[in-house]
Amino acid sequence: MDEVTQEFIAGNEAAMRLAVALLLGALIGIERGWVARGQRSGERIAGIRTHALVGLLGGIAALLADAVTEWAFPLLFLAVAGMAVVAYRARMPESHDFSITGLVGLLLTFCFGAIAVAIDLALAAACAVVTAVILDNKREIHGLLNQLQAHEMDAGLKLLLISVVMLPLLPDRGMGPGEVLNPYEIWWMVVLIASISFVGHFAMRLGGAEKGILFTSLFAGLSSSTALTLHFSRLSRQHGQLSPLLAAGILIACGTMFPRILIYCLVINPDLLPRLLLPVSVMGVLLYVPALVIWRAHRQDTKVDRPERHSNPLELRIALLFGVLLAVIMLLGQWLKEWLGEAGIYLLAATSGVADVDAITLSLTRMSHATIDLHTAVLGIVIAAAVNNVIKAGMAAAVGNPGLGRRVAVPMAGSLLVGLGLAWGL
To answer: Which of 145-149, 306-310, 377-381 has the highest mean pLDDT?
Structure first.
């Protein structure tokens, strides 16, 4: 390829990138112009034309910085910022608008133009689209912020603390007896549990009580099906006519535990998934199908409030306790395996399943990498899930009315027997 051809291609590429810079500016300008569409011509500080030209100017600044002087970009950026500040300052007494969002959007437009020319087109386009979406959803964002409660803000910050701050600081190597304790992996599992609980909490908040028992139960299964079982069982004593729907809700929440187990397996050890998929899926289906049959047969217009959440699921103390529990189960698993072999793992799974399925699931999934074989891990996870659902069925029978207990116990028993049979035969 001769020199003339190379220069021609380079020139066309630069022209294309400048065109993209112009279009990205126009994109943000369209949104800004739409917001200010009620103002007369000349009253808007920056609309579609200004933003398009600022995007183009950012691209030209990047070219000048590369071909003429490195000072071209910062000087032009300061010039745009200065003109924007003067314009917004002059407009402020008349509009009584002290927001600097429009100013920041204009400066970002300049930067996106430079990124499109000098760095990466896809990155610049993605940033511009995200910026336009944020600018366009002012009312929705402010509405969500107004609905946010203090303990939810605290939960979000704590989730960031245990994930963004603490996780990278932990050593990623095996420690302790048999090197079964990896601080990084244990804490990563804590973050995984906390994140799912966090998502489940806000899914229930955004869905609202008007969505009824079905919607509430589905998302409660992401965080605390045990809490929902207790709440619905007590509710059945107060509102007997709701027992069929409440039983369906409990079965749905308990069934949601099984997709959650598959997600853990997929993330931590995908090699375990083919063996675990059949028994876990069947156990979930054997709870979902009766739940939907009961729901369709007894569907009513009556709705109940979602389960109350008196405590924050992301308190750091709870996360630490889960980490300790996870470490203890892994140590016990190693010890019981050396002492009793596979029987020790199954005993540990049954004992752990009384209170919690997540910890033993995560422990066995991680141990299946090297410490135990895949069959033992699958059977142990199924045993833990079965025992956990037996406990919840007992809770429904003891706390709820007789009708609730019967409707919950029969599908639970079927799910348990079939799941254990499939896991044993794999």
So the answer is: 377-381
d(Cα 401, Cα 269) in Å, to the nearest integer?
A: 41
| Predicted pLDDT at 78 | 92
Residue 10: band (very low, low, confident or very high) from pLDDT cuts 50, 70, 90: low
Distance, C-alpha 13 to centroid of its chain: 39
Chain segment 410-425, per-residue pLDDT in tens: 888 888 888 878 877 6
Task: DSSP letter for 175, please.
Answer: B
Hey, is 181 helix, strand or coil? strand
Could you give the count of Cα atoms lying within 13 Å of 270 in the half-sphere of its Cβ? 1
Highest mean pLDDT among 41-45, 135-139, 208-212 belongs to 135-139
Query: Three-state DSSP class for 371?
Result: coil
Which one, of 396, 398, 393, 388, lies nearest residue 358 by Cα? 388
With CA atoms as reference, report the closest residue to 63 among 126, 128, 125, 11. 11
Residue holding tokens 């924007």? 84
Helix (H) or strand (E) holding 43: none
* All residues at 6 or more sequence positions from 334 whose CB lies less than 8 Å from its CB, including other chains: 177, 178, 180, 367, 371
The radius of gyration of the chain's CA atoms, rounded to the nearest angstrom, is 29
Q: Do 144 and 114 contact (CB within 8 A), yes or no?
A: no
DSSP codes, 190-230? HHHHHHHHHHHHHHHHHH-GGGHHHHHHHHHTTT-HHHHHH
Alpha carbons 220 and 196: distance in angstroms, whole number: 11
User: Per-residue pLDDT tens for 85-131?
Assistant: 888 777 766 666 666 778 888 899 999 999 999 898 889 999 999 98
Instruction: Output helix, strand, coil percentages for the chain, rounded to the nearest 5.
Output: 80, 0, 20
Q: Which residues pair with 181 in a beta bridge?
A: 175
User: Tokens 């020139």, residue?
Assistant: 11
